[in-house]
Design goal:
single chain; 174 residues; elongated; alpha+beta; 3-stranded antiparallel sheet; 1 helix
Length: 174
């Protein structure tokens, strides 16, 4: 009589434990996870500041089963052509003035996108030293980037947002 009740109790405890693990996994689904579903495309930014130079390295990772297409401006190393990043003074949250080059472009065409193959990543390093008005002296900053990608070059208007990414860094402005 007690054996079936004990087995049922063990089964309930096991089911509750699995449900709890699934709930935890869903809530902590990793960077950029929304609604328990990991994104197919994610991004990461890292910054190196030394000798007056600020280098921002952006990595876009395609974990999907098919190619995606990102704006070509995200693949052109060196000084960015336009305000790709938002840089803020971390002490007060104020955005830094963008003083870099601005490029006026016509509406994008298929040629304005670069493919990232399935299960591949694209890494680009930008020199943002002269693109933002960094404050004199040593300061902490937060940099963020938000972008999008296409899954079909025949549907240029159907962008999918990449979960924004950010990083903190220190820089000595002159």
């Amino acid at each position: 009589m007690f054996k079936p009740l004990q087995q049922r109790a063990k089964l309930c405890v096991t089911i509750a434990g699995v449900a709890g693990l699934l709930a935890i996994a869903t809530m902590s689904g990793g960077a950029g996870a929304r609604d328990g579903v990991s994104p197919v495309v994610s991004s990461k930014i890292a910054v190196e500041s030394r000798d007056g130079q600020v280098l921002a390295t952006l990595t876009i990772n395609n974990q999907g089963e098919r190619a995606v297409y990102v704006p070509r401006v995200l693949t052109q190393e060196g000084e960015p052509e336009g305000r790709l990043f938002e840089v803020r003074d971390s002490s007060n949250g104020d955005p830094l003035d963008f003083v870099g080059m601005m490029v006026k472009r016509p509406p994008p065409t298929r040629k304005d996108f670069v493919a990232i193959k399935p299960h591949s990543k694209l890494t680009t390093t930008f020199d943002i030293s002269n693109s933002y008005r960094f404050v004199n002296g040593r300061h902490a900053y937060q940099i963020s980037v938000a972008s999008s990608y296409l899954t079909d070059l025949n549907k240029l208007e159907q962008h999918t947002q990449i979960e924004p990414t950010s990083a903190m860094f220190a820089h000595v402005g002159q």
